[in-house]
Design a protein that fits this description.
InterPro entries: IS1182_transpos, Transposase_11, Transposase_InsH_N. The protein is of the alpha/beta class and about 500 residues long. It has 18 helices and 8 strands.
Length: about 500
């Protein structure tokens, strides 16, 4: 009825029509006409270049090279290559020898450091274990480099500890009371098996036909000898663990008795070294381990410790002194004692020995507070000028330090009361408030960036060496961020 103008045909909505576009050439099967250069694969400011220059031109690898005295045999991998891989791996959180081997195949930085070579994980693990002392010695070299670059001032340092998980399960530990019971039961089982074996051997000697019928024509006995061997090995482990616990209890009792006798002699103004020794020996002989004292079969040196989350883990207690200026670690050590209190003097002494300078201020938390350490802090202040700020108690979350009471400190105030008053003053609060900002980020960086929460090596010496290697790589990362590769110019090993 109405005239309507014709409407054009609508195109379906969808992808736009293709155009004749030119793309960059891409041929995955292209053969390179010239050999590729690994040097072209990394940016100029890459950490791997810094590690390569550091190992080749700055670090002293003499202690590693001195261990190669045998000329015969198949040539080993160049120590520079292996040290490159371990430093870069421990700096970037790739610490496992198997993980390093995988990265050598698919990570450009590792291939650059190894110059295309691919040592297997066994070679890497053997090198690390063989030269662990020399690798731990890199910590002192890293501290020396940081000092030369002006990164260590020793004006204020912070001391703290953290629990590192051992390469062992806490379920492989056994208490002293259970050890004794288990040992007695296995001894009884061994005696019973030995009696059965003797009876079988007697029957075998008397009646050859019965032996052939019972044990077969080859003359083999039953599985009793193998079972005996298994139980005897188990018994040997139990006895070794029991001996370790008893020795530790005796050593602890000896030290406590000797300290008690020394204090008694100081009060009486006498000096009798023989009496101190006798008191220690007497206490050691009478010492008896607590029934709940434990030993671990996988890593006997490690201990059950409580970490910052409140969980009990098989661990070592790692200690560190950190300089405030650039968070450089100036001392690093590992102990098997869960308490931090025993490490105040030794760690500050180690820091002074490593740097040649005593710090002006030392900040330590309440875990180090003890009458012995408060006395040592006072003596340290008089001897070398280090002013220690030691917390005398822990604060709850968001709890503020109360202000110092007005008036003078009472003359009869104890060392703990004097330290608590000192921390409540404005200078004391200002100084101690820097403790967390100095040392705790260092632990966080090691745990996160370097994957250093769990140790790979067993034994106290292995744990100490690995912790110092982690500390060395932390310092080297700080040097890289502060000065870069150009900052190594002019430095010698």
């Amino acid at each position: 009825m109405f005239e309507v103008e014709p409407v054009g045909k609508k195109r379906p909505q969808g992808r736009p029509t293709a155009v004749n576009k030119t793309f960059r050439a891409f041929d995955p099967r292209q053969v390179l006409l010239l050999p590729p250069s690994l040097d072209d694969w990394l940016p100029e400011d890459h950490l791997a270049r810094f590690v390569a220059d550091l190992v080749d031109e700055v670090l002293d690898l003499g202690p590693v090279l001195a261990d190669y005295t045998e000329k015969r045999g198949y040539p080993p991998y160049d120590p520079r290559l292996m040290v490159r891989l371990l430093i870069y791996g421990y700096t970037t959180g790739v610490r496992s020898s198997r993980a390093i081997e995988r990265r050598l195949a698919d990570d450009v930085a590792f291939r650059f450091l190894a110059a295309g070579q691919e040592p297997d994980f066994r070679s890497i693990a053997r090198f690390r274990r063989r030269h662990l002392d020399a690798l731990a010695g890199l910590f002192a070299q890293s501290l020396h480099l940081a000092t030369k670059l002006g990164m260590v001032k020793m004006g204020r340092v912070a001391l703290d500890g953290t629990k590192l998980e051992a390469s062992a399960s806490k379920h492989k530990a056994m208490s002293y009371g259970r050890l004794v019971d288990k040992e007695e039961r296995i001894e009884a089982e061994i005696a019973q098996l030995e009696a059965q074996a003797q009876a079988l051997l007697a029957d075998a000697e008397a009646i050859d036909e019965a032996e052939d019928h019972a044990f077969g024509v080859d003359g083999k006995e039953t599985d009793l000898p193998a079972e005996l061997d298994r139980r005897e090995k188990r018994l040997a482990k139990l006895q070794a663990a029991r001996t370790q616990i008893e020795a530790e209890a005796a050593d602890k009792a000896r030290k406590h008795a000797e300290d008690k006798e020394r204090r008694r002699q100081e009060r009486a103004d006498i000096h009798d070294g023989q009496a101190v020794t006798s008191a220690g020996e007497k206490a050691a002989k009478a010492a008896r381990p607590k029934p709940k004292a434990q030993a671990n079969f996988t890593d006997p040196d490690s201990r059950i410790m409580k970490n910052s989350d409140g969980a009990y883990i098989q661990a070592y207690n790692a200690q560190a002194v950190v300089d405030e200026e650039h968070q450089v670690i100036t001392a690093a050590d590992v102990t098997t004692n869960p308490s931090d209190a025993l490490n105040y003097t030794t760690m500050l002494d180690q820091s002074a020995a490593n740097t040649g300078v005593h710090p002006k201020q030392a900040l330590v938390d309440a875990g180090y507070c003890s009458e012995t350490n408060l006395e040592a802090a006072r003596e340290r202040h008089l001897a070398c000028g280090t002013d220690t700020f030691m917390a005398t108690g822990r604060l709850t979350h968001d709890e503020q330090v109360p202000p110092a009471p007005r008036g003078r400190i009472p003359k009869d105030a104890t060392l703990k009361e004097r330290m608590a008053h000192k921390l409540r003053t404005k200078p004391g609060k200002a100084a101690y408030s820097r403790r967390k900002a100095i040392v705790e980020p260092v632990f966080g960086q090691i745990m996160t960036c370097q994957d250093g929460r769990q140790l790979l090596l067993r034994g106290e010496d292995g744990a100490r060496g690995e912790w110092r290697l982690l500390a060395a790589c932390h310092n080297l990362r700080k040097i890289f961020r502060h000065a870069g590769t150009a900052g190594l110019a002019g430095l010698t090993g």
